[in-house]
Design a protein that fits this description.
single chain, mainly alpha, flat
Length: 145
Amino acid sequence: MAEDRKPQIERLAPFRFVKGRSGNPSGRPARLPVSGLYAKLCEMEVPENLRRKLNRGRKSLGLPKNCTFGEALVLRLFLKALAGSELAAKEIRVAIEGHPTRRVESLVVSAEVDSNFYRNKLKTLLGEDGKYLPAASDHPAEPEP
């Protein structure tokens, strides 16, 4: 019986799992259920009755025919920013330029100033000799890489 299985095993040899290699190299596709729905809705055209309703009254958006929900949303956001909403203006800036990067240099300087400030406060509390304080060289001004 083992002899009958040998040809079958040899036939399946090229399809065996290779050690250290994934059986699903692409992996499971990322699912973003809410974001995906937002993206689909942004591409849909605003129904005519809703477009007319949004174009009525004092807060009219002035939406053109065949405009999408995404276009309506962007127009509304721009109008709010023009009306003085700092939050809307920030949202537009972040969408265009991205989030600002942090400046590390300023953080290092402020940490050095803070450590000297607290060192001086401790000296006034413990006395001028500061015998309980570690030496100043124990605290480098710049962090090590």
